[in-house]
Amino acid sequence: MNWLRNDRTAAEAETRRDHLDIINRVKSNDPDLPALDIGVILNDLHTATLLAEALRGNTNLKRVRFYEYGGDMDHFHMVISALSETNVSKIIVVPWSQIYPREDDLYAVAAGKRLLTLQSNLTRLDLNACHIGPSGAIVLSALLANNTTLRA
Question: What is the residue-averaged pLDDT of the chain?
């Protein structure tokens, strides 16, 4: 069954190329890239690091959506921190896969904490249908108590 391994290797190589293409578009400040969906690209430390470096100084990106991510929180924090050096004004945190149902609060609250302390130009934080839960909502509301940039 060697062909199964070859198919998987080919698919992984294609995914890596796709991720690098996106990272290069971000790094080049592509004016045709106003929005970015970030998901499994964060599962690998190398691509997460490249993405974080590429984000720094990007002025054309306005919206970022995190989805289907259940990897290392350090990778997530690295990218969230890099967003503070962009003009991104809308960040969407989509519910993660059912594989990680108890971690929704963890990621949503981590995103909120990091963004609210780093992102002075953030005007919208969309947590619609993220299933944040009562404990996460309490933490997030405390973080938002003194925020002056977010709008309803």
Answer: 78
